[in-house]
Amino acid sequence: MMKLVFATTFPDFFKESAKVSIMGRAVKAGLLEVEAINLRDFTNDRHRTTDDNPFGGGAGMVLKVDPIKRMLDSLGLPEGSRTILTTPAGKVFDQQVASDLSKAPALIFLCGHYEGIDERACQLFTDWLSIGDFVMTGGEIAALAMADATVRLIPGVLGKQDSLEFESFSDSLIEYPQYTRPARHETGNAPEELQSGNHKTIEKWRRIQALKRTLLLRSDLLAGASLSKEDIETLEEIKGEILEAIGKIK
Questions:
Q1: Given 20, 34, 100, 248, which is the most exposed site by the fewest CB atoms within 10 A?
Q2: Pairing of strands 127-130, 82-92
Q3: Domain with 137 in it: what CATH number?
Q4: What does the pLDDT read at residue 183?
Q5: What is the pLDDT of residue 60?
Q6: pLDDT of 184 above 70
Q7: 28-30-35 Cα angle (round to 5)
Q8: Where are the alpha helices (DSSP H) in the chain?
Q9: Could you tell me if 103 and 35 lie in one domain?
Q10: Cis peptide before 182 (omega within 30 of 0)
Q11: Has this prediction a pTM greater than 0.70?
């Protein structure tokens, strides 16, 4: 069982998340334990102060090192646990990071707030992670997004392993288009290949579409993709078709 801890000054933010969707399913199956810790419980003043003015002056408040250190010391973490700081200075979170984190026995997310976090507290964490180059009010949403992407990779959480293997980014490619009934509709028809019942035909169509989508929408991902000789030939064919189409427009 993985233990998932969110350390925050807003623990109510996470209460419902542990009850619904994939995370709720993992908890019910006994594969996950979720806890939201209030950093104010680790203060030692009557006002339960977790932040203070920054040394040297400046705007905003800074989360204090003491409550964070006490919180980490109280957890009694098993070997191999990962303590995660949500920060714009961190490595950008992606599917590979999620896969790596899913193997840990426990994940502890510190949700930053205010102007920042005392650097001495930052140095206590094994991982600094970000979900992108933009500013948010706090780290709660970022922590929840990373946790969701990670929990679904824990063995047994999702019903079918195929659901993991063919999802977007699982092999550095965007997922192929999906269709369901009705097969024919005024907005368009589902591809005949998907209705053929021939597994090889379906698999080939899906691979080609994944390559095509990735090339057109996120070509940067191809540099890290595991491509076969056939994949490379397919990409060249797709590029040729695109150039031909552009030529017709001219």
A1: 248
A2: parallel
A3: 3.40.1280.10
A4: 93
A5: 86
A6: yes
A7: 80
A8: 21-28, 65-75, 95-101, 119-122, 140-151, 161-165, 199-217, 229-249
A9: yes
A10: yes
A11: yes
Domain span at residue 233 reads 184-249
Q: What are phi and psi of 111, to 5 degrees?
A: -95, 105
Structure tokens at 171: 């092999």
d(CA 175, CA 173): 6
Return the amino acid letter for 197.
Answer: G
Give yes or no for a contact between 26 and 76, defined as CB atoms under 8 angstroms apart.
no
Of 148, 162, 145, 170, whose CA–CA distance to 21 is shortest? 148
Among 100, 113, 114, 115, residue whose Cα is nearest residue 146: 100
Question: How does strand 2-8 pair with strand 116-117?
Answer: unpaired
Cα–Cα distance measured from residue 23 to residue 183, given in angstroms and rounded to the nearest whole number:
33
Tell me whether residue 73 is in a domain: yes
Phi-psi region of 88 (alpha: psi -120 to 50; beta: other; left: phi over 0): alpha
d(CA 11, CA 135): 21
66-124 pLDDT tens trace: 999 999 999 999 999 999 999 988 999 999 999 999 999 999 999 987 778 999 999 99
